[in-house]
Write a structure and sequence with these properties.
The protein is α/β, with parallel strands linked by helices. The chain contains eight helices and eight strands; from the N terminus they run βββααβαβαβααβαβα. Strands 1-2-4-3-5-6-7-8 form an eight-stranded mixed beta sheet, with helices on both faces. The structure holds 3-(4-hydroxy-3-methoxyphenyl)-2-propenoic acid. 3-(4-hydroxy-3-methoxyphenyl)-2-propenoic acid binds next to loops.
Amino acid sequence: MNRNSQDFEVSEAPAGFDSEREAIARGIMKMIEYPSGTVGRNRQARVYTPPGYSADQEYSVLYLLHGIGGDENEWYTHGMPQIILDNLYADGMLRPMIVVFPNGRAMWDDRAEGDIFDAEKIRAFETFETELFGDLIPYIEANYPVLTDRLHRAIAGLSMGGGQALNIGLGNLDRFAWIGAFSPAPNTREPEILVPEPKRTAEQLHLLWISCGNLDSLKHVSDRTHEYLSQHAVPHIWVEEQGDHDWPVWKSGLYQLAKRLF
Ligand code: FER
């Protein structure tokens, strides 16, 4: 990667980027069920296949993660990802990709109910790493026509899922060349642990995106990560958005990240 946050500007998502348009080709959002050996039961994920999807083509994959109060439905219910992506396709601004929306709380009862900050539930967001590599990625790769090398696999997420994307992505650069975090939460590892070998990380990354609202009470997590990356010359895009810990920032993040992927 040859960009960093100092040498270019990220323009704002254009008006209507998240509004449904008439008469454009649409992707399809499905619910899938996959066997989780890690958890010991079937679990659900949503999968978006792009307009014109065909088993004769080969697709990149973005794994897009939710926040602490969400599940596999959160992006779909609040973020209109299929509309944002369909619009980008219609404008010729997106490479062909499948987007997987997992449930990042890898435990038997994976609903966002009761005390969502319960220690067992927080741990399940860490267990998800084992499940992702052991169960979900193998399922996607066995059932969809996807490219399976690191250059065609991305991970991103919002808040708790942003922390997961940074921890899992930066911890497994042999599996992911593209990483995005929107308003990453305090589950994000300390920078020295997240990126212990900055030079190696810089060599392997194709894109590292971090964005956060200027009013977000968790912004210190993004700030400390961005500062460390800058000090250690790890190229990344850092965007301080106008906004809070909320959907306008995350939808804008998806728009900006998706069009830069692959
Ligand atoms: C915390 C504050 C917020 C935390 C997680 C969050 C694990 C997650 C917020 C979200 O996903 O919206 O202290 O610790």
